[in-house]
Amino acid sequence: MFTILPIKGYIDQIDGFFCDGIHAGLKANNALDLGFIYSDTLCDVEAIFTENKFQAAPLKHYLMYEKDFKTNFVLINSKNANALTGKKGIENINTVFASLPFELTNPIMSSTGVIANPLPVEKIVNGAKTFNLSAKNGENLSKAIMTTDAYSKTSMYEVKLEDGSSFKIGSVAKGAGMINPNLATMLCFICTDAAVPKEDMKEALKLNSQTTFNAISVDGDTSTNDTVLLLTNKKSNAYNKEAFFEALRMVMHDMAMLMVADGEGAKKAVAFEVKNAATYEEAQKAAKALSNSLLVKTALFGEDPNFGRIASTIGASRITCDEDKLIISYNDVIVYKEGEIFFDKEQEAKAASVLQNDKFKIVCDLGVGTYNFTAYGCDLGYKYVEINADYRT
Description:
Layout: E1 2-6, E2 17-22, E3 34-49, H1 57-63, E4 70-77, H2 86-98, E5 108-111, H3 121-128, H4 138-144, E6 153-161, E7 166-174, E8 187-192, H5 198-209, E9 227-232, H6 241-261, E10 269-277, H7 280-292, H8 294-301, H9 307-316, E11 327-330, E12 333-337, E13 340-341, H10 345-355, E14 359-365, E15 371-378, H11 382-389
Helix pairs in contact: 1-2, 2-3, 5-6
């Protein structure tokens, strides 16, 4: 048995982890734009990255390390993605690390921002030289890694095991736009003092990503920099596989839901629950199609329960489906059932009322099997266009 308790605060509450964020001149108006995570002992590290074929220089730099390397330092900058920068992008990362006056072991860099601009090496080096590696300022770090985010994204839990031992796990992340299943324009850094075996780290990340980061969509675009890093210094000497997998799932789910809710002007966070599909893959395919559909997203923005768009999107996904078995509902308000339309004025008003909420679910029971999958998305409105039209300025 084990207990998982949410706790307030940032990753600096975890024994042996330190962090901070500063202004290095990448953003205007003295906004924080450069941060770090430091461990006073070496950490095992695992990562999952974007499926975009044009992976950014920081990802390529990470993959150049030997298998099962350990690290004690992560450097994170915003405003510049260091993507599509070729060999020079990797050279610039090496220059940055070689210029810092700290004892670093296999340091990792992570970047977010505008694609296809050279990394501002001098600004980053000058800023990083001012780091205090004994700082514990998770709030500053959470702000420094933001781009179009409306708010910082953090999550923390303490896991208490049956033998009286315990460990903590927490995360800091950014992500609001270019969010698509198969990760998103997101950086997520998960730290723990759990004594996790290396092989369990990889398994847990891969397993939990399928129902969290790989199940969300804001706009259907997949970035070049998407990164989820899991770091453990094992200082607690405590571990239980079931407890760790569940706590990691909870952290990743928290981060994914915060990203969807912050979807660059989004007002609605929506769960698309596909039930009773013929296969798990088809349930997943249909749910993700719904979360990606621009017609569905704009209907959500207009608070219009246009269930025809829901049905059309499912059919267009080319999965096994039958209109005489399909049931569509907004929360528990049924609007279509097995070939019959339940959409008189009273029922439409009830469905529209559901869409006025900040959070709700759209349930599609296919009635052709036993497999389920839930994807998560949001509405898409004027603010999204405004933000992305002016992104480079």
